[in-house]
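Worked problem 6 (solution included).
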Amino acid sequence: MRHHTDTATFHLSKDACRAVLAFAGNDRTRETLYCVRFDPPQGAIYATDGHALVRARNCGRSAGMAYSVPRPALEQAVRMLRRGSDELLVSRDGNEAVLEARNDRAEPLGSLRAVVPKAEFPPVEQVFPAVPVEHPVSAIGFDASLLARVELVQRAAGATTCKLMLGYDDLSPAVVETNDRYDATTWTAVIMPCRL
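Solution. The predicted structure is:
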């Protein structure tokens, strides 16, 4: 994944789009979670459904305000990507998000605009541990469908391994971290436990 600091445009691969969409909420009535958050000042992308959260960090920082792209718009834009080498360019123009699909020769495949939701994305940065703590674990249960999303993050990063850190009690989330093989992007997923 690349982020151009001069234009505040995020460049996402098809795998990166699939990874963030896997974590975005599906409930249309929860507008704050039914989207993917792009944060140029932090150089980060976030998505959450309230049970699991993903962050792609170190995408390059730039001026501009953070904004959200509605899930349906991002899904529609991903359908324009034909091959794995195609990419999606995401930027903001006033109160609209601009999504442009391009092939590996930078030729346009299609574009669309979506109104940026007015609802505020939840403050998720506090969920990520500042310094992951590793402790012995007893019995913690996780929803297998949430853990399956980790594979999408790993594929988006082009990584062969990822680090899984479990908390010290049955209420602590699992934290999965991997670095992008192609650039400095760090992917972090936080998955909440379920009761056994």
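Discussion: Residues 16 and 156 are 5 Å apart (CA to CA).
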